[in-house]
Specification:
It comes from Komagataeibacter europaeus. With 311 residues, this protein is mostly helical. The protein has helices spanning 3-38, 47-57, 64-75, 80-101, 118-121, 124-143, 151-165, 170-179, 187-212, 217-244, 247-250, 256-259, 265-287, 297-308; strands at residues 111-112, 115-116. It has one domain (11-308): Farnesyl Diphosphate Synthase (Orthogonal Bundle). A hairpin with a 2-residue loop joins strand 1 (111-112) and strand 2. Helix 4 packs antiparallel against helix 6, helix 4 packs antiparallel against helix 9 and helix 7 (151-165) packs antiparallel against helix 9.
């Protein structure tokens, strides 16, 4: 490759990242607006609970999961309103998991997205209740006819989120993570841990867009595989970031995995080996969406963003 060609390729890649970030920012604003609408402030005894729920969900963040829902849904010309509702739902479910994950009984982290964790801003009991309420609300949103007029679509969304977030998904992965502290896990065990704890919800987010669009079974499987591998690349890159980025870059405590004696991709493969594995899985994720052509370019760019990000 000539120097001119290489420079042109780098410029094109940089331009695509700029466009992706602009797209993600626009989607994030739409999702934040939807969460604000779905979770208005109230008076009365439950006001503190609602304030904690809003604090946990409206505190910024990449909105990667919500972006995936909306971007995949757009491939099938699904309703923007319905996609934003599902995106808000998955971001609420994700927020609940972070609120509980930060508790002293779990990862015991005082910092989240550069701000005090919910239990530090409020108190532990309020944080637990806020997480509980966010979890139940995420399913209530999916079951509402405003999300989609087809009961079959709504039921599929509810079932898929339950599968991704329960004992066979995110919560099960958290249990494996806690049990694995201070114990050497194999690469296969680490891969399964993260596939459940992080990957299942990212996979669901992509699949939810296909469900909203009433995609065929074959296409839905392809989208699901894309989400699965994107989730794996995301987590491997996250392990690299935990070992190499600062707390200021991450917006949360850095180096927590090593301090807790957790088995990670970095611990098993080294920083360079983990980064190489992230790129391999990322390429695999891209291969699943070849059938969509240029319409899926943002989803392809998202794969590169996940691997190259610094927070």
């Amino acid at each position: 490759m000539s120097q001119t060609t290489a420079t042109s390729s780098q410029t094109d890649s940089a331009d695509r990242m700029v466009r992706l970030r602009a797209s993600m920012s626009a989607r994030a604003r739409a999702i934040e607006g939807m969460i604000d609408r779905l979770l208005p402030r109230v008076d009365g005894g439950e006001a503190r609970l609602i304030d904690a729920m809003r604090y946990a969900t409206l505190g910024g963040g990449k909105r990667l999961r919500g972006y995936l829902v909306a971007e995949v849904a757009s491939l099938f010309r699904a309703s923007t309103e319905g996609a934003d509702r599902v995106a808000a739902s998955v971001e609420m479910l994700h927020a609940y998991s972070l609120v509980h994950d930060d508790l002293p009984a779990m990862d015991d982290d005082d910092l989240r997205r550069g701000q005090p964790s919910t239990h530090r801003k409020f108190d532990e009991a309020t944080a637990i209740l806020a997480g509980d309420a966010l979890q139940t609300m995420s399913f209530d949103i999916l079951a509402n006819p405003l999300t989609h007029d087809s009961a079959d679509v709504r039921i599929n969304l509810v079932r898929a989120l339950a599968d991704a977030s329960g004992a066979a998904g995110m919560v099960g992965g958290q249990m494996i993570d806690m049990e694995g502290e201070g114990r050497a896990l194999s690469l296969e065990e680490v891969a399964r841990l993260h596939a459940l704890k992080t990957g299942c919800l990212i996979r669901y987010s992509a699949e939810a867009g296909a469900i909203l669009g009433q995609a065929s079974d074959d296409v839905r499987k392809r989208i699901s595989a894309y989400g699965r591998d994107l989730g794996a690349a995301f987590q491997i890159a996250d392990d690299v970031l935990d070992a190499t980025a600062s707390a200021e870059e991450l917006g949360k405590t850095a180096g927590k995995d090593e301090a807790a004696g957790k088995s990670t991709y970095v611990a098993l493969l080294g920083v360079d080996g983990a980064a190489k594995e992230a790129r391999r899985v990322a390429e695999q994720a891209e291969s699943h969406i070849d059938i969509f052509g240029p319409e899926a370019d943002r989803l392809r760019d998202l794969v590169h963003y996940v691997v190259e990000r610094r927070n």
